Amino acid sequence: MEEEKKYYLLTKKFWNIFAPFYDIVVTPISRVRDKVVTFTEAKIGSKILDVATGTGKQAFAFAKRGYDVTGVDLSEAMLRIADKKNKYENVKFEVADATNLPFEDNSFDVSCVSFALHEMPSTIREKALKEMVRATKLKGTIMIVDYALPKNKIGRFLIYRFVKLYEGEHYSKFIKSDFEALLRKSGIKIKGELLVLLGAGRILKGIRVANNR
Ligand SMILES: C[S@@+](CC[C@H](N)C(=O)[O-])C[C@H]1O[C@@H](n2cnc3c(N)ncnc32)[C@H](O)[C@@H]1O
Fold first, then answer.
1. What are the percentages of helix, strand and coil residues in the chain, rounded to 5?
2. What CA–CA distances, in Å, run from 139 to 55, 77, 109, 142, 173?
């Protein structure tokens, strides 16, 4: 598909240039990382997969609490930074496409994806979620952290306009889409939601319920 080809090309190019600045730009969302770990409530010793891990910020937050973490990303440039900043023995990174994860079925207790799905064309987003489901154990936990819109009208208007200024073309479609329906279709049952960043973001906690590939 043309749109997918374009996406892969642009994503790699974009992060090649932008990787060195990413951690500075996302400083305002630093506090969300620990909230994600707490909200996950993973058992001690859980194996965690962080999809589209970028520079590994969310992966490190899980590793800090003692979990065994694998972070994957398409961008070698982002992973170079993750590797450089990695001071944990219980986290490793590898290059992989979220739509074709190099793991056996049912490999992880928890899969997480943070601030990445909104950047993807809908076909890639759908495939990535399907792969997360496949790689997660049945009844395992799937964490999704991404943009949301506040409940009140003015907040929604302002946040949407603001985020649109710096996000790419797929953000608008993502935020207007029926994301809950996509999760259900992917085999994820939502168990909880935590609003963050004054409602401009949310952490969704789901359970893998589908028993199919
Ligand atoms: C905005 S960054 C988010 C990074 C990190 N999850 C975080 O919370 O800071 C988006 C990341 O998604 C990665 N990405 C985009 N499409 C991907 C795909 N198909 N497979 C794996 N990683 C992908 C990009 O390379 C980039 O590192």
1. 50, 25, 25
2. 28, 34, 8, 9, 29
Distance in angstroms (rounded) separating the CA atoms of residues 27 and 77 = 19
- Measured distance CA(135)–CA(155) in Å, rounded: 37
Over 80: is that where the pLDDT of 58 sits? yes
The answer to whether 96 touches 74, Cβ cutoff 8 Å, is yes
Residue 99 CB–ligand 1 contact under 6 Å = yes
DSSP one-letter code for 105:
T
Tell me the CA distances in angstroms from 150 to 153, 182, 198, one per residue in order. Answer: 8, 20, 7
pLDDT in tens, 141-180: 999 999 999 888 998 889 988 888 888 788 989 998 999 9
- 187 Cβ closer than 6 Å to some ligand 1 atom: no
Residue 212 has pLDDT above 60, yes or no: no
Paired strand residues for 70: 49, 92
Ligand 1, atom 10, residue with closest C-alpha: 116
Instruction: Tell me which fold the domain 2-208 belongs to.
Output: Rossmann fold (3.40.50)
Among 115, 120, 143, 145, say which to mutate for ligand 1: greatest number of ligand atoms within 8 Å of CB. Answer: 115
Contacts of 2 (CB under 8 A, 6+ apart): none
CA distance 54 to 81: 8
Residue 84 contacts by C-beta under 8 Å, 6 or more apart in sequence?
Answer: none
